[in-house]
Write a structure and sequence with these properties.
binds fe (ii) ion; Jelly Rolls; L-ascorbic acid binding; metal-binding; 4 helices; oxidoreductase; binds 2-oxoglutaric acid
């Protein structure tokens, strides 16, 4: 059984989201889970991953000038993925209880950025689209060095830089999807992350 995220930690995350809309945390995921996720990625056939696309629905397209990562979606019926997804479910419930966010479900993918890859500045949700509400990024890079680059840079609504986050193993960023433009700087070593999005239900919100 996975140890749950503590009530105290959920309080910290909820307070930070109210206060500034984002939070960077380290080591909130039990190590046995992050190590299994990393093990899965080390054994994975990265060339079988999909080339990541930009845009949603029929507007979706591949544009490697904007993003050049390869992705693979997490599935609930996969024993390793479900360890992580269960924790995100605890986060979803904890935040709904504290902030009445109405978070309904969660989608997430592993992303592999090989040397030279990046993801140019973007927002994860269009304003008012009410689909992706809260973004999470979890990093799986145990020996990250400053000269490997690959930082996640978070900007405010006026495009001032708020935070520069090295993608070190165990670090997690959580931010309001509509509010924070962000980018992945060019990486100089293979960089692995799990990006995920809590969504609200269109049915409930009347779309
Ligand atoms: O891997 C990261 O640091 C962030 C990726 C990202 O912004 C995304 O997939 O939308
Ligand atoms: Fe993003």
């Amino acid at each position: 059984m996975i140890s749950p995220l503590s009530e105290a930690l959920l309080d910290v995350i909820a307070d930070a989201l109210v206060d500034k809309g984002y939070v960077i945390l380290s080591d909130i995921i039990p190590q046995e889970i992050s190590l299994t996720l990393l093990g899965k990625m080390r054994a994975a056939q990265i060339w079988e991953f999909e080339q990541a696309a930009i845009g949603r629905g029929i507007e979706q397209q591949i544009n490697t000038d904007i993003r050049a990562d390869k992705i693979s979606w997490l599935e609930n019926d996969d024993a390793i993925d479900s360890g992580y997804l269960n924790l995100m479910e605890q986060l979803r419930e904890g935040l709904n209880l504290r902030l009445f966010m109405g978070l309904f479900d969660y989608e997430s993918h592993y992303a592999v950025y090989e040397t030279g890859a990046f993801y140019r500045k973007h927002v994860d949700a269009l304003k008012g689209s009410q689909n992706r509400i809260l973004s999470t990024v979890f990093f799986l890079n145990p020996h990250w060095q400053p000269d490997h680059g690959g930082e996640l840079v978070i900007y405010d609504e006026d495009d001032s830089q708020l935070d520069t986050v090295p993608p070190r193993m165990g670090t997690m960023a959580i931010f309001l999807s509509e509010r924070f433009p962000h980018e992945v700087r060019e990486t100089f070593a293979t960089r692995i992350s799990i990006a995920g999005w809590f969504r609200v239900s269109h049915a409930i919100h009347g779309f």
